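Collaborator request log, item 7. Partner lab (contact: R.S.) asked for a structural prediction of NOL11 protein to inform their binding assays.
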Amino acid sequence: MAALCESFTLCGLSPTSGVGLGGGLLALEPGPDPDHILLTDRGRATTLFKVSDQKPLGCWSVKHGQVLTCPVVCNFETHEYIAVHDDKVLRIWNNEDINLDKVFKATLSADVYRIHSLPKGGPVVLFRGGGVRTLDALLEAPQQEIENIISDEVIKWSEAFVEGKQPVLIFTTEKDGDVFVYLQKLKTNSLHKYKLEQQESSKPMSFTAYMKNKIITLLCLCSDDCVYKVLIPLQQNTEEEVQILPKSLLLNLSVSGSVLKGTSFVVLDKDHIAVLGSLTTSYEDPKECLTIWNTKFQTLQTSKELPLGTSGQLWCYEEKFFFAHGKVLTVIMYKCETSSLAAAVGKLKDGQTPGVSAFVNWNTLGLEELADSFQSQRSGALKHESKMALRSKRNAVANIQTDNLSVGKVLRNLQDVPTRIFEDELKQLMSKAQALDLQASIGSVVTALTSRYKKNPKHYHRNFLLEIVQTYDLSYSLCPDLMAVALENKDVRLLQTCLLRFPDISEEIIYSCLEIFLSINEDYLRRVDVNLESVICYIDIESDNKEVKTEIVENGFSTEQEEGTWDSQLAEEAHLKSDGELCPVGPQKAALLNAVLRSAYSEAFLLPHLRNLPAKEAVLFLRYLFYLYVKCSEKINTTLPGMSSPTINQIMDWMCLLLDAQFTVIVMLPEAKLFLSSMHKFVRAQVRFYSELNKIEGSLQELQRLHQQKDPQTYSIEVLEII
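Returned to partner:
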């Protein structure tokens, strides 16, 4: 049994990556750690990501005018990175290197097609002419002559394996419609050429392969919507004649009248493959889907619709799928279990195969088949009920069809109904969603609501959308259009809730939220229902917009209780000196900005957006950040009170990021000079204070050690002099 699990957005994609334009990313390759991947775009840059943290660990790029022409790979033996730009220029560097102009460089004598890095065999370089070299052999003589093996043929795909500590390379070529397969063993320097059995109606479009028991299994995704299998033994005789490789049908990508037009696929295990493609039916528009198929029992196990479109590329590492979805790189985890007939047909007692019913054309099934299919999907809920008679099943078919309507069919039936009826129907659909696929079902409902708004802007389900986001654990990648619709309607409460609850919001959307929060009028915000939990404990604004300060009593001390012991004039002077005393924004805007501060982001992707922030809004935001910084510094534990308040680390990170993005603009503004001067003095005073604390740190530790050694039995007063 196979299932798709939770998904998240790894990063945003720049326009140069080609998403939506048919180009796509250049490639993804595994990094030095199982949790790391290397992303190479169709341009100048490569980025190392830590997948679990959704954060980039490093980014390198070649100079303007240079282009990376094959995917960057990691040498697993040395933990170095290898890239080729402009077809022939080889670069090698490590994590400490920043500028690729200063790293190792070698110019080769022939164009490189691809570099394959093997965990136990080292990097192997495949040239466009079919020549193969190990990286070590190539570095000994970079200008060595590379033989041209394939003449007029064009390499379409390649893969490398290790067999008995020996690198083995397989690649396919094409010439005049014929497909050839080459098998190269590097240590023995043996090369075998094969010709793939060809059919007019079945042309290979994509390849993948795996090796087991000294046999390479080559899988071909063909134009007739089928996957074929080709077996290639590693032990071959020395015949020079080109052998014909026969194909055998492995899987037909169709079910109940629906056909999947695959663009790429990967092997998951001996019984499962994943296919990315476009599902076509006779009664619906094509839609792109990610699917998992059981090749042993010829069944579709699970699927996920991808409404934003993909680049047609699919990668799989460490039980995670990676693919471009709209303008982001999406990661979906999956699990595969041992194949059994019960799992293949969806009749396991403790589970259900989600998403399969969307592929079944219920109109083509007979009454008995329909009832049986529905019964199998609900077997867990109905296992204690008595079996219905065949006549009862036939009478219940109409109700069963209604229960199994997808969100798309519900929308078609309710296109012109009033908003209240529309929401009630979707609520019923949500209540019937199985626990195993609840998150995906709710995401489909949100997508349905946003799609209805796009078709008719008067249908904006503000309260219903807010209720869904507050109730269920959703993510930005599950309903990417939701925040865009909320931004269009300036629905600040929904945006605030999404920022606090979604873990994977793109930096572009975070910036858009920040910009609209800063620019929106304070008078308008006073009329809006905003969650004030993050500010209610340290900000209180009266109707005349003057702050009433609320002091938090810590360790039994309050400035109001002890005011008789302090000089009121000194206190007033200290109040006037601090430019962070009065909050520069109202409580509603402060609560919205706090939601932005708590959002996860990547500096590399957020910084370009912050440079576009208008100067007026940038200064206002910096003043508010400084106000929060002063507030945190007043407290012993440097923590703001209240629910969902930003931490001091988040505040400082945003201050540094904003200054990096806007420093040139801010220093030129006359109205910002006094504020910057005050901020500089405050930070300088804090640095001096902590420097003094560092000086006595050793003495304090020694005192603590002496105190632990002593165990006075009676009351005593000790006077300790620190010199």
